[in-house]
């Protein structure tokens, strides 16, 4: 426990007010480039969580009646404010994640794109109608909001992932309780300030803080209807199992082991550039990072070029324009990756580039890790089986496209994959047979734009309906079907018409 008075405490956001918590448990927020403490975040008390949920529940009764075009206009105002404060948000985000400025701006922008899609909520809330399903009987469906929704977000995208969640849920007529990662709470609070400035009514968005104890309280609360989560596999399983046991609708996005298949006919200069960027970008701390290169046939000959390219890449602080990426989020995260690198060496893989001893001038206490490349990797090695979540790329050689497809389909994860080839038939075969939810063809990280949905499969996702796009609207709403019959003889006419005045 830390003395919260030493550094400004991060507030809660309850019923439209930023309030300091009465908690006696606090967590340090650090700058990963220096490990200096920049804030203290509270472990929200049960009574404070109750206040947030109660406020969200009471607000829902009014908010669900707000016309859909008015909810869309709120999102239009919000996306403009986010654009106006884009660079400011990126700088704040960099301070708590360590991301370089370009990465941070991308984080914010991808969130803005989802808010733009939320502004299209009217067309996404349309139901269906069939006239004369029987004699003089019509049926039609209505899309209606659920109530209080909850989001639990990770450290690696503190703007984008909250913006995946609460704008779509609120635009659909719900209210929302957000629990951002305790490692990066500052960006979420600024998002809330701008949402309020955009005209969001008090109570539609609440923010509470904390760790597992607070999450478990949210998961069990009877007034919360849905849970949205992004994070590691063990936590995603816990979220999904606990939430569904308490009869909630849950979408839990988990880990990944994303493969890029390189065919012998691919343009190798592009392949090298894309492999480097997609493996070490954001320090490898993203669920869509490419962490496995599957080299088909003589495509393995690119390893020397890949090695040379990775040796040129350097991490650095956010304002270093020459830095390719920033530090890892914490000393513990760095140590975990170091342990996996050491396991790779001990299990017989060839470490072509070793970033274990990386340092950045002037920042001796940062969580730095240089690009790391392994060749000669087999599927029984820990560096293949585990999601490393660091700037580490492993290479596996196979003889045929069929072998590559089998290898990927045998992996438990199914978040993203890609193939680089000049052959349309190879690309079509790959995209058809691969058991992965998001596929890139000559695109390294195939994250869909928000009018689609983020569609991880298998061990990368627990639930049925995915984030943003049409699936998000279905996740945050319920369908009501009405069957109506009216009788011709009840139609009033001429002199028999009675007008009732109030």
From TrEMBL:
Keywords annotated in UniProt: NAD, Oxidoreductase
Organism placement in taxonomy: Bacteria, Pseudomonadati, Pseudomonadota, Gammaproteobacteria, Vibrionales
Signal peptide location: none
GO MF annotation list: oxidoreductase activity
Domain Aldehyde dehydrogenase per the UniProt entry, residue ranges: 18-482
Enzymatic class: oxidoreductase
Keyword Thylakoid attached: no
Pfam family membership, one: Aldedh
Protein name (record): methylmalonate-semialdehyde dehydrogenase (CoA acylating)
Family affiliation: Belongs to the aldehyde dehydrogenase family.
InterPro entries linked to this entry: Ald_DH/histidinol_DH, Ald_DH_C, Ald_DH_CS_CYS, Ald_DH_N, Aldehyde_DH_dom, MeMal-semiAld_DH
Documented EC number(s): 1.2.1.27
Organism: Photobacterium rosenbergii
Keyword hit for Oxidoreductase: yes
């Amino acid at each position: 426990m830390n003395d919260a008075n030493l550094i400004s405490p991060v507030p809660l956001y309850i019923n439209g007010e930023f309030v300091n918590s009465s908690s006696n448990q606090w967590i340090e927020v650090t700058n990963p480039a220096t490990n200096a403490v920049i804030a203290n975040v509270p472990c929200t008390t049960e009574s404070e969580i109750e206040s947030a949920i109660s406020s969200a529940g009471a607000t829902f009764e009014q908010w669900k009646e707000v016309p859909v075009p008015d909810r869309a206009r709120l999102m239009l105002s919000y996306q403009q404010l986010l654009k106006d404060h884009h660079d400011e948000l990126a700088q704040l985000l960099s301070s708590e994640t360590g991301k370089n400025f370009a990465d941070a701006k991308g984080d914010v922008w991808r969130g803005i794109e989802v808010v733009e899609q939320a502004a299209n909520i009217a067309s996404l809330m349309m139901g269906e109608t069939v006239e004369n399903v029987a004699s003089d009987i019509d049926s039609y469906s209505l899309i209606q909001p659920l109530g209080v929704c909850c989001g639990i977000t990770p450290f690696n995208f503190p703007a984008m992932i909250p913006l995946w969640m609460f704008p779509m849920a609120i635009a659909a007529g719900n209210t929302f309780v957000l629990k951002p990662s305790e490692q990066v709470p500052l960006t979420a609070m600024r998002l809330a300030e701008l949402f309020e400035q955009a005209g969001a009514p008090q109570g539609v968005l609440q923010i509470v803080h904390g760790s597992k104890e607070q999450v478990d309280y949210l998961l069990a609360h009877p007034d919360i209807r849905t849970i949205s989560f992004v994070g590691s596999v063990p936590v995603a399983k816990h979220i999904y199992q606990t939430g569904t046991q308490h009869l909630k609708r849950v979408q839990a996005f988990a880990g990944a082991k994303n493969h890029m298949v390189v065919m012998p006919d691919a343009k190798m200069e592009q392949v090298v550039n894309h492999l480097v960027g997609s493996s070490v970008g954001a320090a490898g701390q993203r669920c869509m990072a490419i962490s496995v290169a599957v080299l088909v046939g003589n495509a393995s000959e690119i390893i020397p070029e890949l090695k040379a390219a990775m040796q040129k890449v350097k991490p650095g602080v956010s304002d270093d324009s020459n830095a390719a990426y920033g530090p890892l989020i914490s000393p513990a995260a760095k140590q975990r990756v170091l342990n996996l690198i050491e396991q790779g060496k001990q299990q017989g893989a060839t470490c072509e580039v070793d970033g274990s001893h990386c340092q950045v001038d002037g920042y001796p206490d940062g969580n730095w890790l240089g690009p790391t490349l392994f060749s000669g990797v087999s599927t029984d090695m820990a560096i293949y089986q585990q999601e490393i979540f660091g700037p580490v790329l492993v290479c596996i050689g196979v003889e045929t496209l069929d072998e590559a497809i089998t290898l990927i389909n045998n992996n438990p994860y199914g978040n993203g994959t890609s193939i680089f080839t000049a052959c349309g038939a190879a690309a079509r075969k790959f995209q058809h047979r691969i058991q992965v939810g998001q596929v890139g063809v000559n695109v390294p990280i195939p994250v869909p734009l928000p009018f689609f949905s983020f569609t991880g499969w298998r061990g990368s996702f627990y639930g049925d309906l995915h984030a943003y796009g049409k699936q998000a609207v279905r996740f945050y709403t319920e369908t009501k079907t009405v069957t109506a019959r009216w009788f011709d003889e009840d139609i009033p006419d001429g002199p028999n018409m009675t007008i009732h005045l109030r």
